[in-house]
Amino acid sequence: MSDFEAALWRETGRIVCWTLVSLPTDLADDILDRAGPCSRGFGSLRVDATIGGSDWRTSIFPDSKRGTYVLPIKEAVRRAEGLAPGVTAKVRIVLVDL
Predict the structure, then answer these.
(1) The CATH number fitting domain 2-95, selected from 1.10.287.70, 3.30.70.1350, 2.40.30.100, 3.30.470.20
(2) Is-contact 59 36, C-beta < 8 A?
């Protein structure tokens, strides 16, 4: 289980726009050391995520530009918790497959 605070930010692709948080790099390094060959497609790792009263299962994804993993924040979670890009959230993640 890992707790951290991070500001939400937006990544716009050709088709969709994602709202994400970046994991602290020290946490990402620890996860990478522990995960080894357990990653899934695109290097993703399944996690149970919590922000406020919202819990959901998702994946974290490696982001080579930022040198860390990113966690997508679903619209339902953003609405329930009153979050928007630029707002800092308290996040808890638990790796599922390790």
Answers:
(1) 2.40.30.100
(2) no
